[in-house]
Amino acid sequence: MNKKKLINMAIKARKNAYVPYSRFHVGAALITKSGKIYTGCNIESASYTPTNCAERTAIFKAVSEGHRDIETIVIIGDSEFTYPCGVCRQVMREFNKNMHVIIAKDENNFKEYTLEELLPNSFGPEDLKNKEERCNEL
Ligand code: THU
């Protein structure tokens, strides 16, 4: 799967965005290390808070189908380059500290980052290791 194909899948997913409140459409497409592809769009709610970003939709679809090994994710929104929100960066961090993140404008114009660049010095699963030791200290 090349980058252009993944970008076009995110563009297609963006068409499904349910955005009656913001009117801001976002699409995402990810590929796992084993080659599985999942897409997502943002889904809003009349009570606003339950809104789910496109990236998280795609990631949750992958994880709920048993695929956590996310290698690359493409994001494309209605602004020139739509960067992932802080919550989505943290969710990406959960599954791959070194995730490859592509912020696309179209299939010929995109910027590439590592998650470490977008979320430096992050908190993650490793910080919660040795649970028993912490319990004993209390
Ligand atoms: N949104 C995303 O889906 N991904 C992002 O990276 C940024 C923001 C959505 C959430 C909401 O539906 C709309 O864009 C406006 O914030």
Briefly say what this structure is.
The protein is of the alpha+beta class. Helices cover 32% and strands 24% of the residues. Strands 2-1-3-4-5 form a five-stranded mixed β-sheet.
| CATH architecture classification name | 3-Layer(aba) Sandwich
Oligomer: single chain
Catalogue the unreliable spans: none
Reported for the largest beta sheet, the result is: 5 strands, mixed
**Helix/sheet category:** alpha+beta
Number of helices: 5
Distance between the termini: 50 Å
Number of domains: 1
State the CATH superfamily name.
Answer: Cytidine Deaminase, domain 2
- What is the level 1 CATH name? Alpha Beta
Counting DSSP E segments of at least 2 residues, the number of strands comes to 5
Write the H/E string, N to C: HEEHEHEEHH
Description:
This protein is α+β, with helices and mostly antiparallel strands. The protein has a single domain, classed as 3-Layer(aba) Sandwich (Cytidine Deaminase, domain 2), CATH 3.40.140. A 5-stranded mixed β-sheet has the order 2-1-3-4-5. A hairpin with a 2-residue loop joins strand 4 and strand 5. The radius of gyration is 16 Å and the shape is globular. It starts with a helix and ends with a helix. The model has no long low-confidence stretch (mean pLDDT 96). Tetrahydrodeoxyuridine (THU) binds next to helix 2.
